[in-house]
Design the sequence.
DNA sequence: CTCCGGCTCGAAAACGATTTCGGACCGGTG
DNA sequence: CACCGGTCCGAAATCGTTTTCGAGCCGGAG
């Protein structure tokens, strides 16, 4: 049913109906209620395609999954996806997702979504220190919110996890257990969160009067193989580490694999700590000590921040940094 | 730029341009090429909102994730999602996803997407024997394709995994290893794939002259707790199983957990086989023997089938059943 | 009585495409 | 010459809203 027919049926002008439905001020509460009731009764609801054309909006927000080959932590993204979807329910927006093929084509993916398919706003994660996606969106004045901070451009809404704190706490815990040669198998530092982790790691060492040893620091892909390769590099050092902090649980598993292959027992001979609480860590033997990352709740929250920003709340007030919790298990030594 | 301005600029009528862009027959190859070149040169591309209104299509297909609490196998869905997205690239369609809150509200989720948000077609998984989603979509004549068969309605395109074969092969393998009391901790049989698994399981037993024992068959949620609870029920039997086939790797892990808690060693005292090759299985100790499930490739294929169906290919020709491969590891006994 | 604010009405102009339709041109065929 | 198929042209209708605008009504305040 078109709005004209509906108007005829309830004997009201089209304009009043449209205004009632769209919350205009110059229609009395009474008429509005009447229209809403009639609409429900007759099953009228405005055709979204028509309204979208008129309003130049698409009622959709886009979410871009990072390219798989750059280290794709399954539960991480799926939980975030679910959180976003949950945050979106009852808002009238729907969720369009797509995956970037590669790091290079990431901005193109954004352009495709923004320019051709018409989403009203974007959400993404894995922000980088210098992030072309942010530059692009701000230039085009497309609203967005992210998981993670960046040094690019003007303030924007985000939720982030305090990875500096994670790095610091990880080091402190290992120091308290008597370790002195603590390595960091980090994720690549073009990601902001890797930078913060490194900062926290080095700061905590210095606090105890230990100078960070370049031989104990490597960067690798956020994958199991990345972790495995990272530890291989570390073991070439003159004096190898007795404890390893990792950029992600998957990397930690790779580290432990290499450890085992070299005849060492993770959790006994060498302490290992991961990050982001991938479910795999619980099942691994020894169970992986790690840091929490509530990506599902983060997804929900990011949606709220984004919507607030689209309604005019200044971005400065829409930035949250959450403190991760250590989840002690067995891989960093006997309790 | 609107089409009118573009038309003026290249000195051609609007109608010819539109026809050229939409592949009509009554425009020569020459003019079409000319229009396309000019469009690229001047950066014109038709506003999707306008064309969608006119064509009453939304250039989008919807994918519904099953509700988490019904047993949400993370990598399973994320891989499928990635496959779908990969299948969709270059087709001009985009992907709208949403999650159903509960089994009951599943059809409502579909209605919301189909009636309000306007997707042109749907993809979903976890088909059930009697599936209201299928009934609804066929009644409304909305194209769709699924992961999994169903007994509902008329033929439709799908990719499915031959879970009957998995059940059969699992039993055969366990029989070959000398087991006689083989249990099945199955997923709920309102899912089609659970039915097929059960059929294969029972058929293989009968082939060897063993009557399926009702005490060795339970159904549980597709979660770790479901598996754990299933084995608890089985252990109450007078003569408990020496081997357990499971509906999913997560369930198998629950089974093994209960086994360990009862002082039995999975893989030595009791053989366990899972299903669907969840990455967790690789890391578990003992590593989980399971069956492959190429959900990523399935997602890609389902998109192809769906698009073919939308272009008129009869559904009968768009149905594929893939045979799963056994992935032998340690949990079903020493090699 | 006049004026004004709050509300309603109806018509009409966007929004940006696709599609139809009648007319015209042009080269070739009968 | 008449006719035809293949192209191209232009104008106009259509998709279903939202939004604007001028006009009108009514009750209460001044």
Sequence:
């Amino acid at each position: 049913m078109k709005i004209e027919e509906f108007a005829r049926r309830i004997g009201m002008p089209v304009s009043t109906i449209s205004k009632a439905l769209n919350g205009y001020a110059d229609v009395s509460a009474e008429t509005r209620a009447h229209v809403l009731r009639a609409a429900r009764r007759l099953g009228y609801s405005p055709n979204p395609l028509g309204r979208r054309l008129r309003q130049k909006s698409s009622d959709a927000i886009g979410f871009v999954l990072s390219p798989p080959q750059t280290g794709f932590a399954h539960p991480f993204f799926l939980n975030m996806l679910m959180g976003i979807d949950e945050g979106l329910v009852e808002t009238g927006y729907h969720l369009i997702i797509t995956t970037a093929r590669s790091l290079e084509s990431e901005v193109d993916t954004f352009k495709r979504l923004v320019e051709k398919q018409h989403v009203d706003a974007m959400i993404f994660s894995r922000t980088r220190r210098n992030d072309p996606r942010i530059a692009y969106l701000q230039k085009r004045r497309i609203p967005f919110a992210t998981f993670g901070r960046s040094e690019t451009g003007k303030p924007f809404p985000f939720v982030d996890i305090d990875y500096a704190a994670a790095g610091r706490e990880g080091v402190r815990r290992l120091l308290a257990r008597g370790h002195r040669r603590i390595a960091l198998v980090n994720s690549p530092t073009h990601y902001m969160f890797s930078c913060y982790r490194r900062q926290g790691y080095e700061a905590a060492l210095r606090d105890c009067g230990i100078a960070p040893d370049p031989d104990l620091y490597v960067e690798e892909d956020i994958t199991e193989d990345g972790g495995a390769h990272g530890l291989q590099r570390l073991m070439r050092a003159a004096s190898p580490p007795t404890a390893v902090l990792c950029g992600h649980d998957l990397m930690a598993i790779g580290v432990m694999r290499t450890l085992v292959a070299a005849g060492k027992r993770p959790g006994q001979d060498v302490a290992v700590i991961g990050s982001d609480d991938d479910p795999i860590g619980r099942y691994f033997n020894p169970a992986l000590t790690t840091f929490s990352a509530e990506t599902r709740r983060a997804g929900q929250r990011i949606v709220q921040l984004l919507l607030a920003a689209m309604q005019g709340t200044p971005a400065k007030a829409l930035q949250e940094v959450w403190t991760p919790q250590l989840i002690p298990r067995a891989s960093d030594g006997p309790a």
